[in-house]
Every structure is written in C-alpha cells, then in structure tokens.
Design brief:
22 strands, globular, alpha/beta, Rossmann fold, ten-stranded mixed sheet
Length: 643
C-alpha cells in the first residue's frame, strides 16, 4: 500500500485544540491590556525567512506569474530534498492545495479557548471561518469545518505566535474554488485581551488599491456570505489547485490516439473454479527520466507543455491475466471486472482459488488484472515502492497516476473488443466480454488508484474498494514504514524532532501535500457521485474497512467515504469527525439506491469489520461475501449491500 496506501489519512482528532465555549458566548467587549495585533505586511513577508509569515499564507497575492505558490524565503531546514520539493511545488500547477493549512501570525499569544470546534466552525457566528467565495458557485458562502491550532514558539519551520487552520480531511476545500480564511473579533488574546487588525488591513475596509485592490472583492464576498467587515481582524483569499485537471488531459490524450494491440495470448494452468488466460497489452507511459526513477528527486515526474498537453509519451507492453467462469457465456459476453492489486502484487494476484477472480467467476464475472507501474515485470528488479517514498515520492505519485491510466486503456480495449480471448487460444470458441458494462474492484493500492479512476473514467458503473483511503497527511501521521512512524522518517529529513511534526506542520501542508495532491483520492472523490464531470454518470460504490488496519489507516478510509458521500452501513464499529460532520446517518442493510445525486439514486456505503486488519475481505468470510453479493446484484440491475 502506498502513502495512503501510499503513505494516507491525518491524525485529525489529534487533541491539539482545547475545548471551546459556545461561540455565541465568547466575550468581545471586555478590555484588559494592550490588544494583540495581527501581522499584515506584504512587503515585509518578501524580505526573508524571519518575516515569511508577516502576511497570511496562502494568499492570491503570494503566487508566481503562472499562479503557482510563491514559497520564496519559506522557513525550512537546509535539506536539499526540501529545496528540491519546494522548487517542484513552485513550478508544477497553479493554486494551492485543497488540503493546505492557512497561517496567520500575531504579535502575542491567542486564547485557544476562543477558537471554534470543527462543528462550530461551519456557522456564520464562528470566531474563525473558512468560507467559499467562488463567484457563481452553488457552494458560495458555505463554511468548511476546520481545526484551529496555535503555536507560540519559533522554530525552524515556524515563526512565533502562529495560528494555523485546516479543513477536516474528507470535508475540506473543493478543487479550483476560491476561499477566504477569516479571523474575527471573537478570538481573544491571553488574559482576555482583544485582537486588533493592523493599520494597513483596517484601511482596506474603506478603500484598497494596488496589489491589495483584490480585498475590495474579498470584503464584498464576505459581506454576501454573512461576515461583516467590521468584525474581521485579518483575512486572506486564495484559489485551490485543480489537481484532477492533469488526469483529464491525460485521458483525453489517450482517447485521441490509437490503442495498441493485445498479443502473446496463452492459456494458463488454473484451479477448477475458473479458466485463466494471460496476454500483454500496449499502454502509453508518461514518466520522464530513466526507470526505475529512484533518483534524482523528481525523477519520473509527468511533464506538460505550455498548452497543458502531456510530454514524454511512449509505448510499453504490460502483462495481463484474465480469469473466466467455466460455464457458458451469456449472449452479450461475460461481464468483466478490472482489478487493481495491492503494493507488491502483479497481474496474477487475483487468480488463486481463494482470490477475487475465483469468487467473482462463481457469480458469472470475468476479472482482468495487470502489472501496476513499477511492479511485476515492469521493472528489471523488485523495487521497494514504499521505501521510494522517502527518497523520491514523485516517482510513487506518478506510478499511481500511470497505473490509473493503464486501467483506462483496459476499459477502452474492452469496449473495442480487443480483450476477447481468441478461439485459437481457448481451443474452441472466442471468449467474448460484455462491451457495454464496466466494473472495478481494487484492494489497497488498487483502491487508491480507484480513488483517481472513478473520477476520470466514465465507463465504470459499479466499484468495490477494499482498504482504500485518502489524505496524505493522515498517512504520514498514522502509518509506519519498516517499523518506524512515517512522521519520524520525514522529521529526520526535515531536521526536526519527530514529536514536532503535526497535521498542520508547514512542511506537510505547504510542500508534501501539494506534491502528492495529483494522486490523493480526496481531490477526486466529489466527482464519484455528487459532482461528476460533464458526460459522466455517478457510480455505485461500496467500501470495506478493517478497523485495525495499519496500512490504510481507518481515519483515511472514513475521510474518503465522507468525501464521496458514503454512509457507514450498520453496525457502526467506529466513526470520525469527517463522518460525524458530514451529516451522513448510518444505514441498515440491505442497502440499495440509498444515495440521492443530481442524476438519480445510487447505491453506496462503507462496511466496517471490527478487529479485522488490512486483509478483511480475505480473512473474513462475511466480508468476502459482501463484495461477491455486490457484484452479483449489480449484474441483476442495481448493486445491493447485503446484510
């Protein structure tokens, strides 16, 4: 499994926020001493590391010409890896990560008891707010639930007296939207001292010009959203990146070019449960550099020209294996499930007598698996994919995107009939597959790749994700690698103590998270059901979670479920802030057509297995039965999550 499966999901419930009073009861009129003032010095923040946070970050005023984040003078250690990572963030894509933290600096300590809880932060009366101000968007004026934390001491990456706010993973900001982060007068300093805006910020409420002219529109948007300018101590506005946009362009490239042949067919030995055939298909790879992309930092990075078209396209042969039911095919051909294997697997992972291919064959479905990028025969020698995260996470990121693109090629081959097994190989009739229906199943890394695929590929109608999650920072804080917490490995690279790396750490949210954004399922999840791109229908989706999973943290799985809009199927074994704040009430099985979307009703839910780990669908017969029933009922018309 990669970070989230490649590293995923944040220690969001990290206890860093003190309990706060009801926001409507926070005193704002008692003065005790000199006010605490917010920093808002645009010129000063450009002077050096010590003043980097003297103006809020992120900000639409702190970008390069192409809209990419301007991290000039970003306070950091002298690590060359950090410098290389910052350079990529500053040059890759416009906008800021939808999972970024937002940072404000003050001249003294704030009282965390006046910060809102995540539940309180979505109200118009909250003391700190993260507001969607995207003009014309249906989400305009909505508040993102946030965590707010305060750090008093200066360190390598922090300056003194910094407030950090971040969205609850799974319920955070939308892609390509504009947001305003706002601190109001309800926040107090220590000893109940009031907050005061800087003179420059206060002047913008009357008239703004020059670089700061955009604040006229910011205050107008906040006013429309119910936030009075007089109540605002400091605010910043910025636009999030469109991370899925690159995958949209890559799919368009694939669709515009001829697909290569399927060849080297062979009938393989197989259990009595199914027949097994292998072959190779031709995909298009977009890696830059030389395989296996272990060095230098950034090797393997997908590159695009000035018009956004992908570069470095080259053909590659990839092994596939198809399990086929032993009975007669239906008139339209066998329905085919594309299968994504976990880290360390290959094209044969699903083909054993107790594996997915065998069980799906028992209910009439064929299954095709293949070697994921950087795995199986696609590398000359085995690669420690998870270890590669520490030295060159870009290569791991791109292996996820490449594998997702390979899956799109397989669906196209299916539609065009190129996956049909020739009679010369079967020793009889050609084995045909249903060219009108698309299904997907993934485990671990295969479920993370589904976290991209389901937001890009329109042919899929139903998908089952085993141990799939999202949220890079969750994985960093919740997972171990070779027996060591990933957070400690990263801390070593950053030159800080492990205990000082947190969910809101600037190196995490401003550097690591945007690096991994293009392969983070949380950035695609809204497309699966509620907001599919033009020409795409919502999908029926089921997820399974082992509550003791140490590879895909339960927090990350629940964050992904919340981002998709999936409720927990009872019995509820555990929950999280993302689930609770989503408003998704648990549902009792059988579950079918339970989720309302703009295009009708669809089936969806997260099933939990208390005490089970990463391999629940293999170790627990009930969990296995659920995915079999999901696909069996999908063939009959609409998937059902059985009791």
């Amino acid at each position: 499994m990669l970070f989230c499966t490649f590293l995923p999901a944040i220690g969001c419930d990290d206890g860093a926020i003190a309990p706060s009073p009801d926001q409507s009861e926070v005193a704002v009129d008692v003065f005790d001493g000199v006010p605490v003032t917010s920093f808002f010095e645009l010129e000063a923040c450009r002077a050096g590391k010590d003043t980097f946070y003297d103006f809020p970050f992120p900000s639409e005023l702190r970008t390069h010409e192409g809209g990419q984040p301007d991290l000039t003078h970003f306070p950091a250690s002298s690590s060359s890896l950090v410098r290389d990572a910052v350079q990529i963030v500053e040059t890759e894509r416009a906008g800021f990560s939808a999972s970024t933290a937002i940072y404000f600096r003050f001249d003294d300590v704030l009282d965390v008891a006046t910060f809102p809880t995540p539940a309180e932060s979505t109200g118009a009366e909250a003391s700190i707010q993260l507001v969607d101000i995207t003009e014309g968007a249906a989400s305009f004026g909505s508040r993102i639930p946030i965590y707010a934390t305060f750090r008093e001491a200066k360190s390598t990456f922090w300056r003194s007296n910094m407030l950090a706010i971040r969205g609850v993973p799974g319920l955070s900001m939308l892609q390509g939207h504009r947001y305003a982060a706002v601190v109001t007068r309800k926040v107090r300093g220590s000893n109940n001292r009031p907050l005061a805006p800087s003179a420059l910020f206060e002047s913008l409420k009357g008239e703004a010009s020059g670089e700061l002219a955009s604040y006229v529109g910011v205050f107008a948007a906040l006013q429309a959203a119910g936030v009075e300018a007089a109540d605002v101590i400091v605010a910043t506005a910025f636009t999030t990146s469109d991370s899925p946009g690159e995958m949209d362009r890559l799919r368009s490239y694939l669709e515009a070019h001829p697909v290569g042949p399927v060849s080297n067919w062979k009938k393989e030995d197989s259990p009595a449960t199914h027949d097994l055939y292998s072959a190779t298909f031709t995909t298009t790879e977009f890696f830059s550099g030389t395989s296996p992309y272990t060095s230098p930092f950034g090797a393997g990075q997908f590159e695009f020209d000035g018009a956004g078209a992908p570069l470095n396209a080259k053909s590659a042969e990839v092994r596939l294996a198809i399990t086929v039911p032993t009975g007669a095919a239906p008139a339209g051909g066998f329905p085919l499930v594309v299968y994504g294997h976990g880290t360390g697997g290959d094209c044969m992972t699903h083909t054993g007598s107790n594996d997915e291919g065998a069980w799906l064959a028992s209910v009439g479905l064929a299954t095709v698996g293949f070697d994921a990028a950087l795995q199986g025969t696609r590398v000359s020698m085995p690669i420690d994919v998870e270890g590669l995260l520490a030295s060159n996470p870009i290569a791991v990121r791109e292996s996820v995107r490449q594998t997702t693109l390979d899956m799109m090629v397989l669906y196209r081959l299916l539609r065009e009939g190129s996956l049909d097994v020739p009679g010369a190989v079967t020793g009889g009739h050609t084995i045909a597959f249903d060219k009108g229906r698309g299904f997907y199943m993934g485990h671990s890394q295969g479920s993370q790749e589904a976290g991209l695929l389901l937001g890009i590929e329109p042919f899929i109608e139903s998908a089952f994700l085993s141990a799939g999650g999202g949220g890079t920072m969750i994985a960093i804080l919740e997972r171990e690698l070779n027996g060591q917490p990933i957070a400690c490995i990263i801390s070593l690279v950053l030159g800080i103590d492990c205990e000082n790396f947190s969910a809101e750490h600037p190196a995490g949210t401003l550097v690591i998270q945007p690096l991994m954004d293009p392969a983070d399922p949380l950035n695609y999840a809204s497309r699966f059901m509620q907001s599919p791109p033009p020409g795409m229908k919502p999908k029926h989706i089921a997820m399974s979670e082992g509550t003791k999973d140490v590879y895909t943290p339960p927090l990350s799985q629940e964050a992904l479920a919340a981002a998709i809009g999936l409720p927990i199927v009872e019995p509820v074994a555990r929950t999280s802030d993302a689930i609770e704040l989503s408003g998704l009430a648990s549902v009792s099985a059988p579950v079918s057509r339970n989720i309302s979307t703009p295009q009708g009703l669809f089936t969806g839910g997260l099933m939990q297995w208390p005490g089970e780990g990463h391999f629940a669908i293999y170790d627990n017969s009930d969990a296995r039965r659920r995915y079999i029933d999901f696909f069996r009922t999908a063939l009959e018309g609409t998937p059902v999550l059985a009791p």
